Input
Amino acid sequence: MNKATLALACGETFEGFACGAEGEAQGEVVFNTSHTGYQEILTDPSYAGQLVTFTVAELGNYGVHHGDEQADAPQVAGFIARRVSREPSNWRSDESLPGWLARHGVVGIEGLDTRRLVRVLRSSGAQQGIIDASGASAAALVERARRLPGMEGQDLASKVSCKKPYEWKQGVAGREPQAPSHDVVVVDYGVKRGILRQLVDSGCRVRVVPSRTPAAEILAQKPHGVVLSNGPGDPAAVVGADRQAAELLGQVPVLGICLGHQILSLAVGGKTYKLKFGHRGANHPVRDLIGNSIDMTSQNHGFSTDEASLRGKAQVTHRNLYDGTVEGLAVPEARMFAVQYHPEDSPGPHDSRYLFRRFMQLIEG
Output
């Protein structure tokens, strides 16, 4: 195993071993607290431009199953792990995790102290970093990491979005629905397949369109509802997204998920800001302020909505119980609601799948 180095812009360095593809990886170093679902995390387009640290002790123990992906290929810039298994034990496994990552050109590092790394990220915030196995000096790598652009101001959603419209027909179990009753357009800012599968299982005929599709073109398709999807990067930097969302409001029922939630916040006149280290994991408690219930949720975001900026413009419907940040909003008269977390899970608990039923009820009036 070749030695590798992880260097952070704050000056911290970590020694480990190269895993996955050969080469170098650059991006924002973040951490995810999920205990399972590494394949779904690695293929989530919301992680574009990021080096993902897994806090679980071992990755790859159940291999890779072709069919669990959230996109055609891994979307992360790189990955960081304590230990990676090369001999998976699972009847569903089609391939080992290191082999799959190497085949897709994903650079990683293992064998470092991920507990210390996460403590650094929690105290100093998410950092720009470099994974390198060339033998370059740690000091030189730190200086290069400091010159990398931050996540603020980056329109990554436009980069990961589909290039042309397409229809999605597969449900969670891989089956097509019988006689779908609703036509739904999904604006692709980096959509996870889990969202599309949940919509299909809810009885929708799903059509996915690129992120920069004008609102007039979306409405011309006469959809019963529109979903603004998850995605990576800075919501305020996504070209034309706030205007697109504003022109949809009041015209058709709208559901926003993750980045879609943030874009809708901007569309109603709110503001967004970058969190210190973000929310990434499958165990985040969220309170539903309307129903006074608590859901365990799957989350992946580095930005949040400024609650004060929403006053008089939208109703805050959900709140994160870890730090009190906004996790949901609604404008009932515009037939819109949105959540910051992922009701489709993939991975994570199924507590919030009812939100897709709520969207169907909104469509049905």
Observations:
- The chain has a mean pLDDT of 96.
- The two ends are 60 Å apart (CA to CA).
